[in-house]
Each structure stands twice: as C-alpha cells, then as structure tokens.
Amino acid sequence: MPKLKLISKGVLLTLFIITLSGCGYNTLVELDEKVNQAWAQVENQYQRRADLIPNLVNTVKGYADFEKDVLIEVTELRSQVGQIKITADDLTDEEKFRQFQDAQDKLSGALSRLLVVAENYPQLKANENFLQLQTQLEGTENRISVERKKFNETTQEYNTTIRRFPTLITAKIFGFKEKQYLKSAPGTEKVPDVKFDFNKKDENKK
C-alpha cells in the first residue's frame, strides 16, 4: 500500500507538471524573465549616462561665464533620477514606472539644453575631454534608445501572451500581471543634433 501511494503521488505530480506546461506556465515564466533581463539592460545604459554627467559638468563649469542655471539643473535632475529605483516587481506599477520615466525624460531634456548652450562657447573645441564626453554621451543616448526598443518589444510579447487563451487563465491563477511600456516624452526620443560652427563664432569675434 505505501508503495502504491508513492506511485500515485508520482503520477499526480507528473500530470501536474504536464498540465502546467500545457497551459503555458513555463512560457510565461520564460517571457517574464526576458522582460526582466531587457529592463536590466535599459537600467545599465541609464546608469552609464548618469556616470558620465559629473565629468561633463566639471569640464563645462571650468568656463567661468558658462550658464550656471543649466549646470545646476542637470546636477539636480541627476540626483533625482538616482533616488528612483525600479525593481522587477515595479514593472507592473504604473505610477512608479511613470515617475521613473518622467525623471529620465527631464534629465534628457536638461542634457540637450546643456549641449545647445555649449554651442556658444567655441573655446570648448580645444578641450579634448569635453569632446570625448560629448561623443560618449551621444553614444550612450543611442544605446538607451536601442535598449528601450528591445524592452518594449519584449514587454509586448509578454503582455500579448498573458491575454491569450488559455494562458490568460494561468496568468490570473499565478499572478502574472501586465507590465508597463517605456514611452518617450515629445522631443526626447532623439539624440540632440548639436553642430559646433567654431569658424563662424571666431569670425564674429574679430
């Protein structure tokens, strides 16, 4: 009898595993993990941008007449962004996710304004550190855009799957919730196209 009970339990366990597989549970787990991995890449690029900002600010503020309010804005917004942390569980939290996006969008706008203001300082052309930082910053913005796109595509696949039958039943039973998308604020989806016309600036000084 004990042996029969053990066999029965084994059969039931096997049937349970097969049932979970058939109703899409394993697929949901895999898609959920893909979304989390995609988000980690987005965060890595945002962090890379944040790490570049202190050096950029320190380089630019070396010019005594540079507009201080722009530097203050960038520094303060970087600090605000650093205070908002998004975990894998927060990807379903619309309000917290919106706060994160708003902070990042504001920082993107402030960095754009800094580069535009920098256009009025032709002497920055001689500063190799600034030019290198500008190049790194623009490269990072491009990588942010790429990773945001990948994240949204992965999230779309996950969200679509949890709404399909029969996986929608499994999703409800095991608590798989719809995740948020990254939405760009108007004007922040493109890297600023800042061109330094140093010759023109120098001519105006003559």
Description:
This protein is mostly helical. It has seven helices and no strands. α2 packs antiparallel against α3. The radius of gyration is 25 Å and the shape is elongated.
Strand and helix map with partners:
Blueprint: H1 2-22, H2 25-60, H3 68-82, H4 94-118, H5 128-161, H6 167-174, H7 198-205
Quick summary of this structure?
This protein is mostly helical.
Q: Which runs of at least 5 residues are low in confidence (pLDDT < 50)?
A: 8-21, 188-206
DSSP helix fraction: over 70%
Q: SSE order, as H and E?
A: HHHHHHH
**Major sheet summary line:** none
What is the total tally of β strands?
0
How many separate structural domains?
A: 1
Number of helices: 7
Overall outline: elongated
Strand content: under 5%
Roughly how many Å is the radius of gyration? Answer: 25 Å
Q: Provide mean pLDDT, rounded.
A: 82
Distance between the termini: 103 Å
By secondary-structure content and strand pairing, the structural class works out as: mainly alpha
User: What is the chains' assembly state?
Assistant: single chain
